[in-house]
Amino acid sequence: MFTRDLVIFDVESTGLDVSKHEIIQIAGIRLHKDTLAEVSRFTTYVKPTRWEEQMPAAMEVNKITFDKLEKAPQIAEALKEFETHFPPEEVMLTAYNAPFDTGFFRQSYIQQGRQAPYEYHTFDIWSLAYLYWSSVPHKNNPTKPIGFGLSDMAGLLKIPPAETYHEALADCEIEAEVLRKLLGKLEIRN
């Protein structure tokens, strides 16, 4: 199905601006390129260096407090652990709304004085979701999609909700199931 295994990854951050906010949690689930079965998983909190710049609205969403981060590794160590679990030459990064997660991920490498070792291109599950969403009727307005968030798509696909959205590993689990269901519903041609 794919030429490499996929790593569905998700980050939680202290805000929305990659130039001043930081990753505080990163997770990934590796899926086999042919079967989409889970191969491995990884998650870690990341100790921020600029906690005082956190955006209260973002922290309200992800519910991550500094006490969870105090003994966490710094971003450089977290990125190295991620690379160990998901060797860049073996995988393709995949996410739901990939530009957000990828932006923070790549900015973290830049701040470490490194180039991200992963392929520049990522697979965005949101694009498949849009194709599917635009092909099905909706309650409020059958001609216009009403939302594109991960929880919206999971609901449409009848995937049980995560205990907590905006917890990186839980979001990866939902994203993996959304991907599997979407590929099963859409006619994908070689």
Please provide the ordered H/E string of secondary-structure elements: EEEHHHEHEHHH
Number of domains: 1
**Percent range for β-strand residues:** 15-25%
The geometry reads as globular
Major sheet strand order: 3-2-1-4-5
Q: Within the CATH hierarchy, at the fold level, what is the topology? A: Nucleotidyltransferase, domain 5
Report the biggest beta sheet as strand number plus sense, adding barrel if it closes.
Answer: 5 strands, mixed
State the helicity in percent bands.
25-40%
| Cα radius of gyration in angstroms | 17 Å
Helix-strand category: alpha/beta
* Strand count: 5
Number of helices: 7
Chain-averaged pLDDT: 91
CATH superfamily: Ribonuclease H-like superfamily/Ribonuclease H
Distance between the termini: 9 Å
Q: Which CATH-level-2 architecture? A: 2-Layer Sandwich
According to CATH, what is the class?
Alpha Beta
Contiguous uncertain segments of 5+ residues? none
Structure report:
- The chain is of the alpha/beta class and 190 residues long.
- It has one domain (5-185): Nucleotidyltransferase, domain 5, CATH 3.30.420.
- It is 37% helix and 17% strand.
- The chain has seven helices and five strands; from the N terminus they run βββαααβαβααα.
- The protein has a five-stranded mixed β-sheet, with helices on both faces.
- A hairpin with a 6-residue loop joins β2 and β3.
- α5 crosses α7 (168-185).
- 30% of the residues are buried.
Brief sketch in words of this structure:
With 190 residues, the protein is of the alpha/beta class. It has seven helices and five strands, in the order E-E-E-H-H-H-E-H-E-H-H-H.
